[in-house]
């Protein structure tokens, strides 16, 4: 299957993408991973992307599109892929359509993870990270540490990242609504959008997604 995964920040896209890609035996292609890989390997696209990032500018669509195209042409993506973070806007969605059409391919589904805005804010703004080890992550409501402000694993100080503040989260949601959400309408016209609730336990959301995708593929 060839799938695009969409949803607001805090919807659990990364977590669901990993589970779905494993269940469907297709590669999980994340924009973040693409950027990191190209920059660390110092590819021409990576150097170009870094030149914009170092100036604090957005990487142009054509660079992101070229990275995605290169990754989708790898042998492991021959029979399908799950795109996470791409396309991010309608221009990228149109470019993806053109890429696939040139190869006589098409998308099978656009999986839209739906989460109420207040829940997104609650999920992200409640996160607390350990200063000693950023892999130690807690949540004031869903995974509270035994002692407030102290990491259960190493007793390090827990803090809230600047980009996890409620004000920043709401700004990120605004960007999502204006830039990324329009691709849902773009794909609805093609009959590709499958919307599911991303509320509940991770495995419940995964099961819901798998069932919705199997219906779409039928």
Automatic annotation (TrEMBL):
Alphabetical keyword list: ATP-binding, Cytoplasm, Kinase, Nucleotide biosynthesis, Nucleotide-binding, Transferase
The keyword Nucleotide-binding belongs to this UniProt entry's keyword annotation: yes
InterPro entries assigned to the protein according to its UniProt record, in alphabetical order: Adenyl_kin_sub (IPR006259), Adenylat/UMP-CMP_kin (IPR000850), Adenylat_kinase_CS (IPR033690), Adenylate_kinase_lid-dom (IPR007862), Guanylate_kin-like_dom (IPR008144), P-loop_NTPase (IPR027417)
Cross-referenced Pfam families: ADK, ADK_lid
Catalytic activity: AMP + ATP = 2 ADP
Known EC number: 2.7.4.3
Gene Ontology cellular component terms for the protein in this record: cytoplasm
NMP as annotated region, ranges: 30-59
Superkingdom, natural source: Bacteria
Compartments where found: Cytoplasm
CDD domains reported in the protein's UniProt record: ADK
Record: residues binding AMP: 31, 36, 57-59, 85-88, 92, 161, 172
GO biological processes: AMP salvage
Keyword ATP-binding belongs to the record: yes
Guanylate kinase-like domain: residues covered: 1-214
EC category name: transferase
GO molecular function: AMP kinase activity; ATP binding
Annotated metabolic or biological route of this protein: Purine metabolism; AMP biosynthesis via salvage pathway; AMP from ADP: step 1/1
Function, as annotated: Catalyzes the reversible transfer of the terminal phosphate group between ATP and AMP. Plays an important role in cellular energy homeostasis and in adenine nucleotide metabolism.
Assigned protein family: Belongs to the adenylate kinase family.
Domain remark text: Consists of three domains, a large central CORE domain and two small peripheral domains, NMPbind and LID, which undergo movements during catalysis. The LID domain closes over the site of phosphoryl transfer upon ATP binding. Assembling and dissambling the active center during each catalytic cycle provides an effective means to prevent ATP hydrolysis.
Subunit text: Monomer.
Protein name as it appears in the record: Adenylate kinase
């Amino acid at each position: 299957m060839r799938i695009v995964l969409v949803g607001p920040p805090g919807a659990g896209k990364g977590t669901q993408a990993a589970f779905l890609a494993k269940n469907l035996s297709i590669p999980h292609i994340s924009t973040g991973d693409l950027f990191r890989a190209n920059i660390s390997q110092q590819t021409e696209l990576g150097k170009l992307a870094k030149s914009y990032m170092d100036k604090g500018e957005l990487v142009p669509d054509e660079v992101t599109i070229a990275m995605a195209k290169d990754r989708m042409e790898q042998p492991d993506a021959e029979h399908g892929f799950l795109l996470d973070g791409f396309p991010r806007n309608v221009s990228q969605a149109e470019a993806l359509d053109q890429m696939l059409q040139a190869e006589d391919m098409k998308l099978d589904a656009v999986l839209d993870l739906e989460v109420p805005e207040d829940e997104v804010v609650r999920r992200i703004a409640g996160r607390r990270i350990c200063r000693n080890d950023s892999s130690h992550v807690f949540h004031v409501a869903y995974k509270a540490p035994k002692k407030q402000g102290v990491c259960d694993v190493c007793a390090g100080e827990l803090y809230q990242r600047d980009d996890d503040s409620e004000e920043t989260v709401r700004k990120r949601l605004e960007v999502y609504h204006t830039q990324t959400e329009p691709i849902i309408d773009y794909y609805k016209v093609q009959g590709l959008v499958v919307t599911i609730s991303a509320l509940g336990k991770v495995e419940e959301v995964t099961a819901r997604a798998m069932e919705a995708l199997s219906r779409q593929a039928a």
